[in-house]
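Section 4.2 – Deliverable D4.2 (structural model, holo form)

The reporting period included a commitment to supply a predicted holo structure for the target in complex with S-adenosylmethionine. Inputs used:
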Amino acid sequence: SISKRLQKIARYCPQGARVADIGSDHALLASYLLVKGMASFVIAGELNEGPFQAAQKQIHTLQVKDRASVRKGNGLAVLQPGEADVICIAGMGGQLIVSILEAGKDKLEGVQRLILQPNVGEEAVRLWMIENDWQLIAESILQEDGVIYEILVAERGNPTLPYEGKERTQEELLRIGPFLWDEKSEVLQEKWLHEQEKWQKVIVQLNRSDKPEAAERIKEIEAEVNWMDEVI
Ligand code: SAM
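Output (structure tokens):
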């Protein structure tokens, strides 16, 4: 079967939706949605020739051709306006996800839900949502094969973060994730513990440096590390 991560993403797709999976690689998510009867139609978009061909082959093998369309192109350029109810973009950096959404804004009309799974840079994705009238409605964090993943789900609506003003500022919630903060799972704690350890190593390195800027940088990082204590 497909990864826990992709299964979790699939569960956020409303039953019977027309789903576009952008950057679909081997079209594993799209296939899963069809085989499980979760989506009525899927569009698998791919920028690169290799994964595009793999996606085509996968859809051909499953004999679900009438309910699937595999397209080669950059981001949302493969879509016609109004064609998809849901857009999934998973397994890329947050900045790339944001640039795909930004470049394809005209294709978002009629889209009801975004399911985004940035590998890094979740903060940039949450910020894009509130700046573009998308309301974060759910978040998940999970660990698989030693890697921690976050899934962010948004629908059109109130572009403010929930739990705003409760213990954490908006800026902090953009980093942590408001639903994840509310849930305070072990995986979330682990994520920030890892992050903290990474920065502590940088402090050790900087302490060995005799550059004059080092002391200032150490202070900044120490403030970060202390902040992370509050998340853990
Ligand atoms: N979405 C799958 C997942 O989460 O398992 C695959 C993730 S894979 C790491 C990222 C895929 O996105 C690659 O197959 C890559 O070719 C594709 N990709 C990168 N930039 C893209 C873009 N601008 N438009 C469409 N696909 C893109």
